[in-house]
Structures are given as structure tokens and as C-alpha cells.
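User: Reviewer 2 asked us to show a designed sequence for the structure in our supplementary figure. I'm pasting the C-alpha cells here. Could you produce the per-position amino acids so we can include them in the response letter?
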């Protein structure tokens, strides 16, 4: 529905369920995306999560990411929190297909999602949190005109050590 140069952001459909489950249960994919305990998801967990991602959901706008050329489902992104009074949205993205890492799909999805946030939702600011060890995500956000706003010291415990969480943001009039 919303197109970038490399990706299309669309609604989830039933054919995405098993791939979402695979992504959610892949430790290497989830280690940089979830601050919680990485615990296996069930088919029912994923079905409930997908069922919550509809056009009737208020406050969250989640999209499936597919490649524009092949129309292959590769991940998901969206706004996980929106403060309507202050027009601030927090985004999240997951490129689950590891073969698509480092090829610009994430950057294009974030850019396309920001365009949706600014042009359709009338947001003033879009923010993201990223773990300090997730260098690829930091580069992606920087390419999309996000700037570091702050650091939460030793905020996440992963793989036997505490890591910082970096707060990043982009404002409506920021050029890409």
C-alpha cells in the first residue's frame, strides 16, 4: 500500500503467519529487536499478534514489509506507540529474513514508514530506541535522518552483559 524504492508496506495476511513465527523464534533476529526475555512464540501467539494489526486498531499501525520486486514478505514495521496530543510516534522495525540484511530494505522501510507518519498521521516527531550493540540499526536510523537524543545506560541485559539503549529521533522537517 505504501511504497518505497525497494519495499512495499502492506497489511498482514494469513500467509504471513508461519514466516512471522519463524522470525519471532529466531534468536539472532530477535536479539537486537526485543528488550524482553527472548522466549519462544507459539502459532497462537503470532495469530493473536497478527489479529491485532488491522485497520481498526487505534494507536498502533503495523505493516508487513515485502520486497517490491518479488513481493516477498521479509519483516514488519510500524508505530508501536503514538502520543496524539504531542504528535510523537515511536516506531519499531524487524527485518526477519536474514538474507535481506545489509541490502537497504530496512532503511527503505523506515523511510517509507516515516513518510506515512508525517504525511498521513501528521506526526511532528518520530522516535526509536536501539540497543548499542545493534550497529546496523543505528546506521539505518542515521541514514533516515534520525539523530541520537540520549542514552539509557546499561538498560538492557543480553547475553550475560548490560548494554546501553540509544534514543533516536527525527522531526517532520528533517530532510533525508
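Assistant: Here is a per-position design you can include in the supplement:
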Amino acid at each position: 500500500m505504501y511504497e518505497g524504492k525497494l519495499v512495499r508496506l502492506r497489511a498482514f495476511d494469513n500467509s504471513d503467519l508461519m514466516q512471522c513465527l519463524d522470525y519471532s523464534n529466531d534468536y539472532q533476529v530477535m536479539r537486537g529487536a526485543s528488550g524482553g526475555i527472548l522466549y519462544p512464540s507459539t502459532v497462537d501467539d503470532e495469530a493473536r499478534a497478527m489479529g491485532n494489526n488491522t485497520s481498526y486498531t487505534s494507536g498502533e499501525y503495523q505493516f508487513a514489509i515485502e520486497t517490491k520486486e518479488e513481493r516477498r514478505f521479509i519483516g514488519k514495521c510500524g508505530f508501536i506507540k503514538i502520543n496524539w496530543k504531542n504528535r510523537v510516534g515511536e516506531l519499531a522495525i524487524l527485518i526477519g529474513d536474514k538474507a535481506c540484511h545489509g541490502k537497504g530494505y530496512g532503511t527503505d522501510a523506515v523511510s517509507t514508514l516515516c513518510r506515512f507518519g508525517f504525511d498521513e498521521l501528521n506526526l511532528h516527531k518520530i522516535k526509536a530506541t536501539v540497543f548499542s550493540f545493534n550497529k546496523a540499526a543505528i546506521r539505518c536510523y542515521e541514514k533516515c535522518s534520525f539523530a541520537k537524543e540520549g542514552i539509557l545506560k546499561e538498560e538492557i541485559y543480553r547475553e550475560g552483559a548490560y548494554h546501553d539503549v540509544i534514543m533516536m529521533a527525527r522531526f517532520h522537517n528533517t530532510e533525508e
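For the response letter, you might also mention the following. The first strand starts at residue 2 and ends at 3. Helices lie at 17-24, 27-30, 43-51, 105-119, 135-143.
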